Amino acid sequence: MSLSVDGTTLSCKGAIAQLTVAFRGLPPGSLARVRVADIPSRIDIRAWADRHGHRCVEEVRHGTAFELVISKGGDGSADVSRAPTDGPAPS
Amino acid sequence: MMLMVSVQNLNEALEAVAGGADIVDVKNLREMMVGSNFPPVVREVRSAFPKQVHVSVTLGVVPDQAGTVAMAVYGAGALGATSVKVGFVQSTYDSALRILRESRRALEGFDTKLIAATFADSDLYHGIDPRLVVRLAQESRSDGILIDTLVKDGRNLFDFLGEPELKGLVVEGKESGLSTALSGALKVANLDTLVRINPDIVGVRGAVCARGDREAGSVVASSVAALKEELRQRWTGAIDVFAGARPPPQRVES
Q1: Domain assignment of residue B118, given as a range
Q2: Could you tell me which chain B residue has the CA closest to the CA of A85?
Q3: Model confidence over A36-72: pLDDT tens digits?
Q4: Which secondary structure element, helix H or strand E, spans residue B48, and what is its range?
């Protein structure tokens, strides 16, 4: 695992900002494990990944918290023309 | 997600905080429905609460006069406001940017955050494109964004901007480290969508006022608490925010 972000101690924007910076220097295919505290933060991380062409390759729920593994896609450049999509949380 | 309640006076602020509001937003409904209140009111509200209760000041729709606006922003800083919101309707992008940059300078030395605000229904007033708010905030070194509405005729935020667009703006703002806030006649019925969009701050007034009346009614603590509980149930998954967003199961013809 290239990178680990503990978003449970950060606001949603903190986790996204931290991931954005951290992914910049990594090659496509790099993996980041992200822990977030609640459903809205999980939705945010998935929307952020989708927006930039990254993929969520694993998602595990621990009570109200989530652990996601994001694989960096393409060249990591922003594709802001794509609308973010969200899926339902795994039960 | 923090709950911001718009208040007009100290009594309403006390009700809002008793109900669990994280932020009280001091405004004056008599000035274009989103206008600025008077300094003594802001001072009274600020001094009633410890610093962890955020007290924001709205300047509403500001004129195209950078000096005048910067002075008002300075006033919000001097009064100890947690944040000050500067809203634009009939401003050009360049003019709004200049005003925000001067506002930034006016807040030097204060612990007050600068929030750039646009209005989702700006088209009704031939105003500035509300989607420019993130760029405006980035280029002016503002601390956050707010998208609100001006019309108070029953329509709300989602009548003017859709979920995908708002989600995109919120994520874009968060990537830049901006605080993100949505407001505009929001109701309990909008909470699923709001949690899916997940701004840092959700702003309400009518939804927590007696009889749901944002003008004649006053903020009621029990309504604030009920709304906060509705939000909590969605954060924790007790209420599935995707339930209404999923397509219905397809019928299989035998």
Answers
A1: 2-236
A2: B164
A3: 988 888 998 999 999 999 999 999 998 888 999 999 9
A4: helix B39-48
